[in-house]
Design a protein that fits this description.
This protein is of the alpha/beta class. It is 36% helix and 19% strand. The chain contains 16 helices and 16 strands. The longest helix has 18 residues. It is globular. It starts with 15 loop residues before the first strand and ends with a helix.
């Protein structure tokens, strides 16, 4: 497959070409990767998927030559990097691994500054870059710059890992199961964060994952490997779901391929419901009156920057009486980003049993509410599409639970 090498406006990434690349390990009769030719377009996210032992991680690590290819060449942009020293090449390619692998005895700022310091940047430039990257991964520099990894959650550590990989502004970012070591909710938020970052930076990103749903959510392109690093299908998520190349790909996708289309639709692509909002510190009775007048079952309490704090029901507001609306954050509030898939939004609703979710923008500001009715419409369309392909395909989703949630939504 021939993919464009053109650098579009705003794209900071570079094309990657692996040309007839082979990797043989000593003592093994067959190559781990055998004669692989793969072109990765500039500024796109390409996901490498396949069964264990198929060569996807070996392929990833040959891009930055943590694993040296036995044969073939690797081209970054228009430059053959096969002859460049490995250490020099790795400073030009950001690398993120599962669990972040931060240096435990260095602060967040020192971790992020690792490569810029090697490159001889000034202290002033490094300091500015650290703060810029912390803002990019949605962590307050004043709060997190001086913390140590042990003082961070798993999700925060992974964010710092991404910031460190981006520190010297490399054109390419490679990621090996980057979100595999965190819980599902944190995983979802990190995926959304990566999509936000990619919208802004347009790097060339190559990710190894065992999770096909993650590949569909994050990837502009997906490479499906079989043993020996042989490509079975290299295509867009839409095409792979609609037209799997063979039975191997069908089995790898798994059941409910039609419903996986939910992962292709973003929250930003559907119509959001409105909500009545009230500023923390103002009378709860006033917000209750406005919410009743609007015919809503809930209202959103926001701070001075219009960021959601709480999502009380009319009954909860009524119990507050004449008291002021609280200014603390409800940690269990169901939140999704515009870049979240409809599948993510549904998962959030099911976990919270809210029947809806609050949508927040890039800086956390309130953007609207997505309801379970919108998700149900999408599921109906996906089921109809799936039925045209295979009438006996399992749906894999408890629609009775969804209907119960629909009755609970505002």
């Amino acid at each position: 497959m021939s993919l464009t090498n053109a650098q579009n406006a705003g794209v900071s990434g570079r094309r990657i070409l692996l040309e007839q690349v082979t990797k043989r390990y000593p003592g093994q009769r067959t190559p781990a990767v055998d004669g692989l030719t793969l072109e990765i377009p500039a500024g796109k996210v390409v996901m490498l998927v396949g069964p264990s032992g198929c060569g996807k991680t070996t392929t990833l690590k040959m891009i930055n030559r943590l694993i040296e290819p036995t044969e073939g060449r690797i081209v970054l942009g228009d430059e053959d990097v096969t002859s460049i020293k490995g250490d020099e090449l790795r400073r030009r390619i950001g690398y993120v691994v599962q669990g972040a692998a931060l240096f435990p005895h260095q602060t967040v700022a020192q971790n992020i500054a690792t490569v810029p310091k090697m490159l001889g940047w000034s202290k002033e430039r490094i300091s500015a870059r650290v703060d810029e990257l912390l803002e990019l991964v949605s962590l307050d520099p004043a709060v997190y710059r001086g913390r140590y990894p042990r003082e961070l959650s798993g999700g925060q550590q992974q964010r710092i890992g991404v910031a460190r990989a981006l520190a010297a502004d490399p054109p390419v970012l490679i990621m090996d199961e980057p979100f595999g070591a965190v819980d599902p909710i944190t995983r979802q938020r990190l995926q959304e964060e990566l999509l936000h970052i990619q919208e802004e930076l347009q790097k060339t990103i190559v990710i190894v994952t065992h999770d096909f749903d993650e590949a569909v959510k994050l990837g502009d392109w997906i490479v499906v490997f079989r043993e020996g690093g042989h490509i079975v299908q290299y295509d867009t998520p839409e095409r792979i779901l609609a037209e799997p190349a063979d039975e191997f790909v069908e089995n790898f996708i798994g059941s409910g391929a039609g419903l996986k289309q939910l992962t292709l639709t973003r929250v930003r692509d559907v119509e959001l419901a409105d909500a009545v909002t009230g500023r923390a510190g103002t009378p709860a009775a006033s917000l209750l009156t406005r919410a009743r007048a609007a015919g809503h079952g809930h209202a959103v309490v926001v701070d001075e920057r219009n960021r959601p704090l709480r999502w009380p029901s009319l009954r909860q507001l009524d119990r507050m009486g004449s008291n002021a609306l609280p200014g603390d954050v409800d940690a269990d509030m169901p939140l999704v980003a515009p870049t979240a898939s409809l599948q993510d939004a549904l998962d959030t609703m099911l976990v919270s049993s809210a029947g809806a979710a609050i949508v927040t923008g890039r800086r956390g500001e309130f953007a609207g509410v997505i309801t379970v009715e919108v998700i149900m419409d999408a599921i109906t369309r996906a089921r109809e599409a799936a039925a045209t392909v295979d009438e006996n395909a399992p749906i894999g989703l408890n629609t009775e639970t969804i209907e119960v949630l629909a009755g609970e939504s505002a």
